[in-house]
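Protocol check, entry for the methods section draft. Step 1: assemble the input record (protein sequence plus ligand SMILES). Step 2: submit for complex structure prediction. Step 3: store the structure tokens unaltered in the notebook. Ligand used here: adenosine-5'-triphosphate. Step 1 record:
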Amino acid sequence: MSNAVTTIETASAEPIVHARGLRKHFGKTEVLHGLDFDIPPGRIYGLIGHNGAGKTTTLNALLGLTSAEGTIRVLGKDPFAHRAELMENVAFISDVASLPRFLRVRELFALLTNIHPNFDQQKARTFLEGTDVKMEAKIKQLSKGMIAQLHLAVVMAIDAKLLVLDEPTLGLDITYRKRFYRRLLEDYMTEERTLLITTHQVDEIEFMLSDIMFIRDGDLVLHMQMETVSGKYAQLIVGPDHLEAARALRPIYEETRFGQTAMVFDGVDRSELEALGQVSTPTLSDLFVALMQRTPSNSGAGQ
Ligand SMILES: Nc1ncnc2c1ncn2[C@@H]1O[C@H](COP(=O)(O)OP(=O)(O)OP(=O)(O)O)[C@@H](O)[C@H]1O
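Step 3, stored output:
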């Protein structure tokens, strides 16, 4: 595919993640088509895309869990070649990652203390004090929400430079999800740490993201800082009287909602739009829908 990725350059600091020409084949099917991106330190990145777009494959390549073509450096290292070394400074939660179910929480912490140089057991215990997870509980007896909290406690007790979260709140109720993100933001994030997160519930993480990457069918179609979204994109709610004038400004997306039309524009002056209706910055989910449906003929992995 020949989608031009919209990239707004970020800080010039040595990137935490550096990817050039990142490709992945499963058999003869190419599912990542040559991604180029850098993730600078101290940022909170959202990697967003439809089912099957390539998010998990990208994260797995960055974590050295799968081989890939192209150049990948995480904290300056090739993750596939130096996975064990890298994991001292990288923490990871995925919906499929499992904790050893036969252990008690206390035993898990003892195990981690032995195997992970940057795991601080006291921090993990302190974190759990505010939850329903008890040190003597068996992991197999915990509910999904408790397991997520235990995961978070483990991750927050690891002094990592990069934290990768792949759908970390899948299956959790809204209260747990909100608590999860709030604690992550308040108790873990610092300027020295970088967070890369994927989720389908983009509205729930929008408040905490500093940067977004949209991936569609194995291509990066947008990469920008959240604070620059409002300078580039605008949403207009327009009534029937101004519909044609608005269309003349070439919206990238149009949708009818309750008898009104919502349009998304790229690079159109807000003062022009304000004469036609109500203007706002699109939410992340509005922007996602607008950009992902722009050229439906391009859909289909492995092109
Ligand atoms: N082990 C595998 N073997 C073959 N194909 C795979 C394998 N893993 C992933 N794929 C394919 O690669 C593509 C990208 O999958 P991936 O899991 O990265 O998507 P995703 O964006 O994380 O999706 P979701 O949001 O559904 O988790 C899909 O077409 C998927 O079917």
